[in-house]
Structures are given as structure tokens and as C-alpha cells.
């Protein structure tokens, strides 16, 4: 779901303010218990939040379904905004920063690392932590 | 467009998996919260995704995604296979108990889909409740939540299973705070069901709001009960809360397997009064509807305790294999992106033959403990110890509830408590909630609980 397109659609449909928050995640999760990997799972997911307001009426929708059309999302959003009671304390969104900010906090080396290597590294880390704990704990 | 589940499974098998199962989910959650007359939280969340589990030898790999392109689905299976292959030196083995192949399609009963109802109608209902509650000057905060959930789950496995199950749940409630003369009390209540919009239309929500406000305001000036040992009658909600938290968790196969349950090694032992029969059931009226678990196992009505004797634990296919039981249909996940845990569905005690008034009258003196407005508590499945705080309750004198008291703290050891049961009512009530559920290892699932009224002799109350 394209962020810029969602923004444009929101404005074109008459929202005074619209904000989109999108997170894409690649992850490998290991749960370790009693020296063993109890569970391991990999994932690739995205999540998109859309919030908009008209006057002092504000509402939001969350989209974790890439098949959902922007139109359905905005239809629901407008329906929510229309029926919202005005929030007397609503001050709008913070003033925008200049330019579009794209923050990269992913390391491709880690994302594409070999799972065997990761598990070996985690096992070694566990050993080091245990040694350290024994050393410090006397 | 429906996904090609077969090709995802076949890809896993081609890569060397001996077993592949898929958990596909489409989830919609709609919520409106009217906070002191202002809509603070109105939103709808749409999500769709798939979880893949593969087994190679006795090693398991999980992977999940909500990017559902054919290419990424292949990658997702490949990741699960890679995990299963690389985890070997570092993990223990897992194997699944056999069960027969299942194919089914189920949509839970509903009349009107709440998603088709305009928001204005939903907000109007909440406003009616708000206006009624505003008539009570003692209320200093009024929050009215509404929620609707549509949860479709498709389970497909390389054994040929295919289950397509959709459940709709809806609910409304109120969270109230009242104060008067520096006394503050709060009450949080809700009503939910597996069904549609017709449920809300069937309730007299103004009366419901008013009744709860009156109870809360009355509890402002109610005295506290003195700590001590009392004979008590627990109402349906309180029985459900205690059974789910203090007993039900101790029957979950993964907790038993890890040695974390007070019930380890006690199958066949008398653990409760002969009047006590406890079941875990996915199809009881009023509860959450769980005809199949998230491993595709049909949900069995499990008698964990029958006439006081511990009969069974709750199982996934994995814990059934390792503990020597049968899969009971209790393998559940919060959503497609979680792995299997053993969870309760609806935990309740079977009714017996006492009328509620008869039970209280026969008790003569003690307390009538109510669950409405009960706060959570703490439990330790390893010891069976628990502490809960009830909702506003009643002192019973000469066989009559005579005076309201503030919520009381109940603490004890569940197996001791269940042995002290000397009367079980004939009024079974089971409830569920669309606003929350049971949390375990970071996963929240919808559950239900309840029972009849139950009398316990010589129970310790903390005041």
C-alpha cells in the first residue's frame, strides 16, 4: 500500500489533515529456555496506520491487509470522522517537518544472515553470558 | 482472491518438509470508545496474513507474513524450512499426536453484520447510555466502549486438513468512576456475544447502564468486610473467574509439560469435592465459539475434573504426544503471526441441583460474593495459590443478603477451595468478552468462563 498515494487520496477526499504511519519488518525471533531454542520463527510483515481529521473530529484506521483498497479504508475513516463527536481539545497534527523522512534502521547483512550462523552465534552468546554470570557470581 | 494453499504446502514438501500446516487469517476489529461524551478512540483495524509451520524430523520451523504475493509466500515457506533444518543442534524434538483428517467450513451464527451498520447508529447507542449515566451526579467518569470483531481462520495441512471458520463477536460495556465525600469506587462491566448487531438491539442498554451506576454509587458508602474465615456463595461470574485463572491454567498441557502445574502427576486423584465437575468446551451458549483449534483439531468437550477426580489435561497435538493424552482441540494462537500454545476455551463447572435462594438460605450467615466489577488477581499454577478481588458483594444474615459491602479479597489454594464446595447450583451461566481475553506468553485469545452458583465453606477473605 503506497504511502504517498494514501496521503494524496486522503487530501483529495477532503481531510484537513491526514497522517500515515507505515512499518515494514523482517525478523527472526528465537526463544531460548534451559539452553535450548524453544521456538524459532521468521517473519516479513508490514503495518499501516491512517489517521485524519476534519475540524475537531478525528479518527483512524489500521491496515495490515495489502489487498484492502484505499477507498474502503477511507470510506470507513470518513464514516468514523462524520459520526465522531467534536473533541474540544483537538489541536491538529504537529507542524510538518520539511521533506519526507525515510528512516532506515535495518542492516541487510543481518536481514539476510544464514539462520545456522545466527543460531550458532546465539548459542555462543549464551555460553559467554553463563560464564560471565558464574565468574561474577563467584 | 483466495490464496493457493496447496502450492504453498507442496513447495514446503518439495524442500524436504515432512509436515506443513498453514494458518491463514483475515481479521477485522472495530472499536468505538465514548469517553465522557467525546469519542476518544474510534477506529477499525484490518489485517490479513499467513503463518507456516514445517516439521522436518522432530524439528519445527515457523514463519509468517502479511505480504501475500506468490513469490513472498514461497520465501516464507523457505524460511520455515531453513529454520527447521538449522535449529537441530540447539533445540529439543517435537512430534505430533496423530489425528484423522478434517474438512469443514463454519460461519458462526449472526443476524445482522455489524460492519454493515453505519457508525452513526453505533454512536447513537453509546450516546443513549451516556445520557442515562449523566443523570447520576456521583459519577465522575463515564467511559463506554463498543467493539466488533470478525475473525476468519483457514487451517490447511499437508495431511489434507482444510477448515475455514469465521466468527463474529460484538460487545458493549461501561467503565464508571464514582466519588462522594472523598470515597472513590470504580466499576468495569461489559456484555459480549458471538453474534451480530441484533445482540445490541436485544439489550436494554439504558437500563443496563442505570443498574450498574446504582450498584457503583451504593458501593461508595458500603462498608468493608472484616478479614476472616467465612462461608461464601460465589455467583456465576466469580466461579468462572476462579476456575479459569486458578484451576484452568494448571490444566494446560504445556504448563504441565514444563512442570509448572500443581496438577502434575495427579490424574486419577480426588482434587475437588465430589460435587465438582469442570469442563473445557468450545461450544457452550454464552461462551466463545471454538469448534476447531488452530491445529485443525475438533474441539472436544473435555472433562478436566469429573465428580472431583482429575481426569484430563488440555492438549495440543504436541503435548498430547509427550504427555500421553489425546489432542483436545486446545492448541490456539492469538493470530497468524504467533506460534501454538495450549489455551483454554470456555472453562466452567457443570450445574447440580441447588436453587440460588435455597443455597443462600441454607448457608444462614456468610457472604454472597459477586463477580460483577471484579478486578483481576494473581495466580500461581505451580502451587495453585490465588488472590482475587470480587465486585461489590453482600453480607448474608439469617439466610438473606442484607447489606452491600465493597469488593472483597479472596485468597487461597484452589485445590483446597474446590474440596470445600458443599453445594452447586442449577443455574449455569457462561460469558465471554470481545474486549479482552486471556493473556499468556504475549498472546491474548478470546475465552469464556462461568458456572452455576457455588457454595464454599470456611473460605479465607482478606477484607
Description of the structure:
The complex is a heterodimer of chains A (138) and B (463). By secondary structure, chain A is an alpha+beta fold. Chain A has two domains: 1-95, PmbA/TldD fold (2-Layer Sandwich); 108-138. Chain A has four helices and three strands, in the order H-E-E-E-H-H-H. Chain A has helices spanning 3-12, 70-83, 108-111, 115-137; strands at residues 17-33, 36-54, 57-64. A three-stranded antiparallel β-sheet of chain A has the order 1-2-3. In chain A, a hairpin with a 2-residue loop joins strand 1 (17-33) and strand 2 (36-54). The longest helix of chain A has 23 residues, at 115-137. Chain A is elongated. Chain A starts with a helix and ends with a helix. The mean pLDDT of chain A is 84. Chain B folds into two domains: 5-220, PmbA/TldD fold (2-Layer Sandwich), CATH 3.30.2290; 228-461, no CATH class. Chain B is built from ten helices and 26 strands. Chain B has helices spanning 5-14, 70-86, 119-134, 198-202, 205-220, 236-247, 253-257, 317-323, 356-363, 414-419; strands at residues 19-35, 38-56, 59-65, 103-107, 139-157, 162-180, 183-194, 228-234, 278-280, 302-306, 309-310, 331-332, 341-342, 346-349, 366-369, 375-380, 385-389, 393-397, 400-405, 409-413, 421-424, 429-432, 438-440, 443-445, 448-451, 454-461. In chain B, strands 1, 2, 3, 4, 5, 6 and 7 form a seven-stranded mixed β-sheet that branches. Chain B has a six-stranded mixed β-sheet with strand order 19-18-15-8-26-21. Chain B has a six-stranded mixed β-sheet with strand order 11-10-9-14-25-22. In chain B, strand 23 and strand 24 (443-445) form a beta hairpin. Chains A and B meet through strand 2, strand 3, helix 2 and helix 4 of A and strand 2, strand 3, helix 2 and helix 3 of B. Strand 2 of chain A pairs parallel with strand 3 (59-65) of chain B. Chain A: This is Metalloprotease TldD/E N-terminal domain-containing protein. Chain A: Residues 18-68 form the Metalloprotease TldD/E N-terminal domain. Chain A: One of its GO terms (biological process) is proteolysis. Chain A: It holds the Pfam family PmbA_TldD_1st. Chain A: GO terms for molecular function: metallopeptidase activity.
Amino acid at each position: 500500500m503506497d504511502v504517498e498515494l494514501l496521503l494524496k487520496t486522503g487530501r483529495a477526499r477532503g481531510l484537513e489533515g491526514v497522517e500515515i504511519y507505515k512499518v515494514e519488518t523482517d525478523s527472526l525471533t528465537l526463544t531460548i529456555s534451559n539452553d535450548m531454542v524453544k521456538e524459532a520463527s521468521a517473519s516479513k510483515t508490514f503495518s499501516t496506520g491512517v489517521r485524519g481529521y476534519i475540524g475537531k473530529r478525528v479518527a483512524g484506521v489500521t491496515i495490515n491487509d495489502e489487498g484492502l483498497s484505499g477507498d474502503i479504508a477511507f470510506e470507513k475513516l470518513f464514516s468514523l470522522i462524520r459520526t465522531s463527536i467534536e473533541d474540544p481539545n483537538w489541536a491538529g497534527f504537529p507542524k510538518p517537518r520539511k521533506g519526507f523522512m525515510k528512516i532506515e534502521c535495518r542492516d541487510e547483512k543481518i536481514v539476510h544472515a544464514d539462520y545456522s550462523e545466527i543460531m550458532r552465534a546465539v548459542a555462543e552468546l549464551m555460553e559467554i553470558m553463563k560464564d560471565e554470570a558464574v565468574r561474577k557470581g563467584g | 482472491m483466495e490464496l493457493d494453499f496447496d502450492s504453498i504446502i507442496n513447495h514446503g514438501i518439495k524442500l524436504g518438509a515432512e509436515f506443513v500446516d498453514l494458518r491463514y487469517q483475515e481479521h477485522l476489529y472495530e472499536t468505538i470508545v465514548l469517553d465522557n461524551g467525546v469519542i476518544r478512540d474510534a477506529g477499525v483495524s484490518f489485517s490479513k496474513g499467513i503463518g507456516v509451520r514445517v516439521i522436518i524430523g522432530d524439528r519445527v520451523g515457523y514463519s509468517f507474513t502479511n505480504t501475500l504475493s506468490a513469490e513472498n509466500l514461497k520465501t516464507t515457506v523457505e524460511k520455515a524450512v531453513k529454520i527447521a533444518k538449522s535449529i537441530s543442534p540447539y533445540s529439543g524434538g517435537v512430534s505430533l499426536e496423530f489425528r484423522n483428517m478434517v474438512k469443514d467450513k463454519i460461519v458462526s451464527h449472526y443476524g445482522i453484520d455489524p460492519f454493515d451498520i453505519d457508525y452513526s447508529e453505533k454512536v447513537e447507542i453509546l450516546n443513549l447510555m451516556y445520557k442515562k449515566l449523566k443523570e447520576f451526579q456521583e459519577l465522575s467518569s463515564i467511559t463506554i466502549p463498543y467493539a466488533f470483531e470478525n475473525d476468519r481462520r483457514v487451517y490447511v495441512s499437508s495431511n489434507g486438513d482444510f477448515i475455514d471458520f469465521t466468527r463474529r463477536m460484538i460487545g458493549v460495556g461501561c467503565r464508571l468512576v464514582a466519588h462522594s465525600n472523598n470515597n472513590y469506587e470504580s466499576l468495569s462491566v461489559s456484555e459480549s456475544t458471538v453474534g451480530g448487531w441484533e445482540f445490541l438491539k436485544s439489550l436494554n442498554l439504558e437500563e443496563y447502564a442505570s443498574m450498574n451506576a446504582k450498584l457503583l454509587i451504593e458501593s461508595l458508602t458500603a462498608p468493608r468486610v472484616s478479614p476472616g474465615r467465612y462461608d461464601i456463595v460465589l455467583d456465576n461470574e466469580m466461579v468462572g473467574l476462579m476456575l479459569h485463572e486458578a484451576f484452568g491454567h494448571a490444566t494446560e498441557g504445556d504448563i504441565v509439560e514444563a512442570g509448572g502445574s500443581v496438577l502434575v502427576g495427579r490424574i486419577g486423584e480426588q482434587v475437588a469435592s465430589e460435587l465438582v465437575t469442570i469442563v473445557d468446551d468450545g461450544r457452550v451458549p454464552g461462551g466463545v465459539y471454538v469448534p476447531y483449534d488452530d491445529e485443525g483439531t475438533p474441539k472436544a468437550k473435555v472433562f478436566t475434573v469429573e465428580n472431583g477426580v482429575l481426569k484430563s489435561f488440555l492438549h495440543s497435538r504436541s503435548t498430547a504426544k509427550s504427555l500421553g493424552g489425546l489432542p483436545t482441540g486446545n492448541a490456539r494462537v492469538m493470530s497468524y503471526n504467533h506460534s501454538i500454545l495450549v489455551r483454554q476455551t470456555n472453562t466452567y463447572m457443570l450445574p447440580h441441583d441447588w436453587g440460588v435462594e435455597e443455597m443462600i438460605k441454607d448457608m444462614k450467615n456468610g457472604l454472597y460474593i459477586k463477580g460483577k466489577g471484579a478486578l483481576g488477581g494473581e495466580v500461581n499454577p505451580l502451587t495453585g495459590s490465588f488472590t482475587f478481588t470480587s465486585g461489590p458483594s453482600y453480607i448474608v444474615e439469617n439466610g438473606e443478603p442484607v447489606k452491600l459491602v465493597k469488593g472483597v479479597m479472596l485468597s487461597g489454594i484452589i485445590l483446597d477451595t474446590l474440596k470445600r464446595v458443599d453445594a452447586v447450583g442449577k443455574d449455569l451461566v457462561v460469558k465471554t468478552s470481545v474486549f479482552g481475553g486471556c493473556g499468556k506468553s504475549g498472546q491474548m485469545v478470546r475465552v469464556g468462563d462461568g458456572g452455576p452458583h457455588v457454595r464454599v465453606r470456611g473460605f479465607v477473605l482478606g477484607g
